[in-house]
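FORM 7B: Structural annotation worksheet

SECTION A. Query
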Amino acid sequence: MIELIVVMAVLGLLLSIAIPRYLDSLDRGREHVLAHNLAQIREAIDKHYGDRGAYPDRLEDLVERRYLRALPLNPFTEAADWQTTPPPSGQKGSVYDVQAPASGRGTRERSPEADAPASEPAKP
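SECTION B. Predicted structure
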């Protein structure tokens, strides 16, 4: 009987160590997928701007014009609930940047200077 109590205590201790690490790894995986999805959408927005000289009016335009096969989902909400940022004044279109909802994840602000490659001047 004592052996059973000892085994149960050891199992409980091991689970109390393993479960938080497992849950943290799930969150890190979702954050990685979120960063990848945001990068994919931002790249499609930039390609749209490069090809057409204007930003898309809606995110769905990227799918309709085949810049994306499908609009990626937010891994935290399992929905395409992206928040869009309009372009600077004087630019055509309505979608300059995309962010995750207000959860605080994936809300890196975008600036033309930060996104432009070193060999290419920043977009006006």
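SECTION C. Observations
DSSP finds three helices and two strands in the chain. Confidence is low (pLDDT under 50) at residues 104-124.

SECTION D. Sign-off
Analyst initials: ____
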